[in-house]
Structure formats: structure tokens, C-alpha cells
Amino acid sequence: MENTAITQEVKPPNTKKGPVKWLKDNLFNTWYNTILTCLGLAFLFFVFKGVFTWVFTQADWEVIPANLQIFSIGPYPLEQIWRVSTVIYGLAVLLGLSAGIWNGLTRQITVAIGCIGAIILLLPFHIPVREHALIATVILAVSFAIGRNKDNWKRWVVVGWVLSFPWTMMMLHGFGAGTVSTTMWGGLLLTLILAAVGIVACFPLGVLLALGRRSQLPAIRWVSTVYIETIRGVPLITLLFMGSILLPIFMPGDFQLDKVIRAMVALTLFSAAYMAENVRGGLQAIPSGQVEAAQAVGLTYPKTMLFIVLPQALRAVIPAIVGQFISLFKDTSLVSIVGLVDLLGVARSVLGNAEWIGLQPEVYLFVAAIYFVFCYAMSFVSQKIESDLGVGKH
Amino acid sequence: MNNNTHKVIPDKIPFYRDVRFLKVFFQILFVIVVILSAGFFYSNMLNGLRRQNLELGLSFLIDSEAGIEISEGIDFDPSETFLKAFWVGVVNTLKVSILGIFCATVIGFFFGIARLSNNWLIRQIASVYIECFRNIPLILQIIFWYAIMLVLPVVQESIRFFDSIFINVRGVYVPSLEGTAGLIPWLWYFLSGIIITIIVVLGLAAFRYFFQFRERHEADRPSFISNIIFGAKWVAAPTFLMATIVGWLLTPEVPFELSRPELQGFNFVGGINFSPEFTALLIGLAVYTSAFIAEVVRSGIQAVVKGQREAARSVGLKESQVLRLVVVPQAIPVIVPPLTSQYLNLAKNSSLAIFIGFPDLFQVGEIMMNQTGQSIPIFAMIMVSYLIMSLTTSAFMNWYNHRITRMGRST
Fold first, then answer.
1. Which neighbouring-strand residues pair with B259?
2. Between vectors from CA A315 to CA A313 and to CA A319, what angle results, nearest 5°?
3. Residue B60 falls within a domain, yes or no?
4. Most buried residue, A41, A350, B217, B411, by CB count within 10 Å?
5. Are A143 and A93 contacting, i.e. CB atoms less than 8 angstroms apart?
6. Do the Cβ atoms of A333 and B27 come within 8 Å?
7. What is the DSSP letter of A335?
8. Does B223 lie in the same domain as B146?
9. ipTM score of complex
10. Run of H or E including B262
11. Interface contacts A/B by beta carbons within 8 Å
């Protein structure tokens, strides 16, 4: 028998791991990848060189710390600033408690926010800002410690979150002598409020519109379809302009609506149409057997939708919904066209100041960074939720 | 005994619990509410108009001189009508949208494919690009680019590329092709080239069909249409090229001339000038949308199941063939619908021109509102213009989707 041929030693495949192997596999595996890598490195070198020289030698960053208060709250009166900090502390309490009670994502997000607070604490901001950051972070940590393993508090925390919204509005607006009218709201504060109101309000409206568009009743279906297609066909600034130019014509003579509320309504009506289309995508993905089964066990239409269809449909379209929230957040920057001083609006007004003239790149980059952080955080959280729920893994 | 405890089920359900009745009832109720609120707004509008002493109507569009200046686009004189002014705005919107769509598609496909490269560095650069430009509001980007455009050097110190592209504070100057006197005759040759091509293709198809008619049985005889396609595949391009080249040689003058921008006095003459506003808007729209298109392309390509690639490789296709024959045909149907909606977004986002003063249809409309006070008709015109754009595009998309899904079923 010639089993010498069989017993010949075959070397095991090279499974060596290490930085050199990784480089070889990922950067220099073929000749054109080597060229690409070199080109990429050269590109990065020039970009970084340009950016670093500009950032550290040419740019004048003095404008940012000098206007930090304007960037964060706009023209909000300083003597009323305790209202803003109270709101922040209240939210910190709620967030801390939730992080203590619920594990997983909530806790991770809270830790991230706590880290941001700590970072603000260490950065060379004005002392009051750092004080607020310190108090908020401490409150967050303390309520986290209190909330740990308090499972029976769940219901109250949820109620707290629901109530936090009107409470925030009332707190910021105030009443009596200390009223801060919405015209004084501005900066990042206004951007966040607009986005929060838009997100909270457009969601139920969008779900209703989506159900309406798939309704079996022709009148409701038609009205929903026409609404959705019209709104989706026009740019957001037409709606914002309509709020400021047409609304006075379409309302009774003495009717006055606050500018901020008009912008909120326009943002909500606009996003609801897009939200409806996202939700409709999810509804279409639900097999009709689910509805039939629900009807067979005798559920009414609202119950079928609320307990059977929507939970499945919404879960399937979480990425699209969060994407919609992100674009809503970015879209709030358009309100400066109707005279609101949101984050972009205050940036423009700072640049209009003779003292800071010609600093457009610095200011716009700073504002862009803020928007980026919020949007990127939202999309990151969406990816986490997606993987936690196991969407798309079936 | 037992019978008595049972409730008697009535034969007829009362009408207020009859689903058929309720359906109709709720719809009527809904329609009444819609009509009532429309009537409420309508009567308010009439009152409001009376307060402002305005009359509804479109006659202002052609009755009076516009008296407004439009900085760019089709030549416009303040003595012309508002209708013409609006048209200038529409053309400007279309111009920036179409150019923007073109640039965004090219950049987007580039980064979408780079995102899937097997080179780690290229992949990272692409994802940083996508994440950065996707997560910053478009308006901020446009304003940023505009700020950059305004700090560029003055005309005399333009940044120049190959002595033909000039960038300065007045915008970007690029060479252009301009028709000469020879253009018209050349167009005729071009047209006759097309006609000759069609004749040749049809002739070839008829010829082949005739031969097949004699040689083959009816069952395996290809249709006339497939012969036309065969002809178009093999002879159309060469015939057309030859015809146009002959036309080119016969034309007395060169049909096109390269017009280069040249510095004369204090300004450039010749070529095409893109104003700073236009350039900033174009860069902003193209870069922002390209980040979204890149994601669309990436997810489209990733939607092709891995097994398809592996199967294609295992039957011995080359890597280029795997892409061309297996991956791309399956990715395209996934890519097209979201791609179209990105194009629509770009067209709608071009209305942000108002922030930097580029006269697109929205900005011209806004000026017209300030001039005439006729906000309702002008708003209607603006909305209808955008709706026409979106509805035609989505009609096309539905048609395309329909076609694609039908193709998917038949194979």
C-alpha cells in the first residue's frame, strides 16, 4: 500500500493573528488596495494638516465661550435662569430613577449623559455653567442610587415622564410677574423644545394618519391620502411661511397665535405626514392573518390595532421612525426663517454683531458640532434598540 | 327551566350596533366635520381679505409690471410681468435641482461603494464622510459654504485650474461649449444620422426575419421585435457614429466652440459663471444628499443575499462578472425607490435658497408676495409647482416599481 502519500505532512492553514496580519488582510491584500491605502493616507494627511493648522493657529475661538449663554438659552432673561436649571434637575431626577429601575439601554444612555455632564464640568467654561453641570450630575447619580431595584416605582416614574412635558413648558414659561414669554426663548433650549414637541406630537398624529390611509372607509382614506401626499410634496418652509403669512388671514380677526406655537404646529403637521408613511410601511409588513385572528377572537377595531397590529408594525419600523425624528431635529433649524432665534438663529445674530464679524467658520462649525452630537446620538441609540429588539433577525 | 334563563337573542341587531350602518354614519360625520372646518376657514379668509382690501384673482400676474430685479437665471427686465418673474424662479429651481441630482448621484455612488470596500481605510473615510454630512442640518451646510464663497479671493487673484476654471468671490467660472454658425447644419446631419440608423436597423431586422421565415418552423422563429432589438444591438451605434462623423466632416464650420473664461478688465468674459449663491446651494445640496444616497446604495448592495455572490463565484464567474451580472441587477430594484425619494428631497430642499438669496421659485414667490400682497394665490402657485414635481416623480417611481416587481415574479 502506498499510504506514504497520504501520511505526507500538510501544513495547517495560516491562522496567525496580529497587527501585521490584520494590515495585510485589510489594507494591503491586493496591489490596487495598496494604492488605495496610500491615496487614502495622503488624503487624510492633507485634510488633517489643513484642519489642524486652521483649528489651532488661525481660528479665533474666543467667540464661543464669550457667547455660550446666548448659544444655550438665547435671549432668555438671566434672572429667570433658575427655571431652566430646575427643569434640567427635574429631568435628571427622572432619568436617574429610570436608569436605576430599568437595566440595559436606559442605563447606558444615562451613563453617557452623566459622562457628558462630567466633561462639561471639567471643560474651561464659566463657573456658573460648571456649577449647574455639577449639580445635575450629582442629582443624576443620587437618584440613580435611590432608584436601584425599586421595581414597584415603575408606574410612578412613567407617570413622571408623561407629566414632565407639561411641567417643563409651564416651568419655562412661568406665570404672574416672572413670566418669560416665548419670544424670549432661544438658542439650544428652543431647538430642543421644538424638537421634543414635534416628536411627541407628530407620533400619534402620524399613526392615526397611517391607519386612516389604510382604512376601509373611503372618506377617511381619501382625506388621509390627500393630506399625506400634499404635505410630502411641498418643502417645510412653505408650511412655516404659511403659519406666519397665511394663518392671520384664515383665522378670525382678533386671533393671535404665538410665533413659537405656530412653528411647533408647522413642524408637527409636516413630520406627521412622513411619520404616517413610515408607519404605513410597518402596517403593510404585518400579515393579514394577524388581523383576522384578532377579529376571530372578537377584538374590536381599536383593540385589534392597539394590541395586535401596531406593536408589531412599529417595532418593524423603528429605524425609519428614529430617522424621521433625526430629520425633524435637523429641520428645526429652519424656524429662523420666520424670526425665531433657535440655535442657528442665535448663531446668525451673534455673527451680525460687529464684534464677531467674519467668524462664520468658527461659529458655524461649533453649531454644526452640536447638531451632529445630538443626531449621531439618536441614530446610535436607534441602532442599539434595533439590535436589542432583534429587528430583522427573524 | 333551562330555556327561561337564556336571554332571547333578537332577530335584528339595533341599527346603532350594525357595522354597516356605523361605517356609513361615521364617514358622513367625518365629511361634515371636514366641510364645516373648511367653511370656517373660507369665511375667515373672505373676512381677512376684506380687512386687507384684497381681491382674490390671478390677474395681477400679467396686468402690471413686476418692478423687481432678479439677479440670475433667464434674462429678466423689471418691466416684464410677474408671471415671467415666477417662471424665472421655476427655471432656476429646476436648474439647481437637476445639476444637484447629477452631482449627488455621482458622489453618493462613489461613497456608497467605498463604504463596502474591502480596504479598511477607505471604508472608514467613507463612513466618516457619510455620518458627518448626514447629521448636520442642510441649511447650516449651505450657509457655511456661502460664507466660504464670500471669503474667496477677489477677481484679479482668482484660484485657477489649468487656466480654464476660475474661482473667486464672484463665483465659479468654467469653460462652456457654444454653438457657432455651423451648429444648425450640423444638427440637420445629426438628425439624418438618427433617421438613417432607424432605417438600417429596421432593414436588417426585416432581412433576418425574412430568412428565418424561410428556414425555421414557426415555433422557434424569433419575433420581429426581437430582430429589431438584435439589429439595434449590433448596427445602431456604428451606423449612428458614422453618420454623425460624416456630418461633422461635411459641416462648413465646427458646430461647437470651447468658450473659455478670460479676464477682461475687472471681470471675466466667456464660459459659464455660477454665482456664489448658486455654487453654495449646489455644493450644499449635492454633498448633503450624496451622504443619503451613499447609504441607499450601500443598503441596496447589502440587500443582495450573500449566497448569491458565493453561488456566482462558485460557478466560476470573475469578480467583475459577479458584480455586473448578479449583484447589480438585484440591487437596482432595491435602490431605485429610496433613490427617487432622495431626488425629491433634493428638489424640495432647494427652497432653502431663500436663506442665501438665490432666486429660486420660492424666493421669487416671496418677493412677489411682498410686492403685491397676494399671498394666497402665490402660495397656491408655489405649492402647485412643487406638487407637480413630486407627483410626476412619484408616478414615475410607482410605474417603475410595478415593472420591477412584475419582472421579479416572471423569473
1. B176
2. 110
3. no
4. A350
5. yes
6. no
7. G
8. no
9. 0.85
10. strand B262-264
11. 150
| Contact across the interface for B348 and A235, Cβ inside 8 Å | yes
Q: Where are the beta strands (DSSP E) in A131-186?
A: none
The beta strand positions in B265-307, using DSSP E, are 267-269, 272-274
Judge if B158 and B32 occupy the same domain. Answer: no
Q: What are residue B172's DSSP bridge partners?
A: B167, B274
Residue with cell 434598540: A385
**Each residue's pLDDT tens digit, A196-217:** 999 999 999 999 999 999 888 8
Task: For B373-392, write each residue's pLDDT tens digit.
Answer: 788 888 889 999 999 988 88
> Which residue of A lies nearest to B44 if distances are taken between CA atoms?
A250
Quick one: B29 and B146 in the same domain? no
Predicted confidence at residue B1, as pLDDT, reads 46
Cell for A297? Answer: 377572537
Q: What is the pLDDT of residues B186-213, one digit of tens each?
A: 778 778 878 888 888 888 888 877 777 6
Alpha helix (H) ranges present in B7-81?
19-51, 60-63
Q: What SS3 state is found at B168?
A: strand
Neighbours of A104 (CB within 10 A): 11
CATH 1.10.3720.10 fits A182-394, yes or no: yes
- Nearest chain A alpha carbon to B361: A238
| pTM score of the predicted model | 0.83
Sign of the four-CA dihedral A334, A335, A338, A344: negative
Extended beta strands in A16-116, E state: none
Count of CB atoms situated within 10 Å of the CB of A268: 22
For residue B139, how many other CB atoms are within 10 A of its CB?
23
Nearest one of B7, B8, B26 to B16, comparing CA atoms: B26
Q: How many domains does chain B have?
A: 3
Our CA angle for A384, A388, A391, nearest 5°, is: 95
Touching A: B residues 389-408, CB under 8 Å: 389-391
What HEC string does A188-253 produce?
Answer: HHHHHHHHHHHHHHHHHHHHHHHHHHCCCCHHHHHHHHHHHHHHHHCCHHHHHHHHHHHHHHHCCC
Residue ranges of domains in chain A: 19-58, 77-179, 182-394
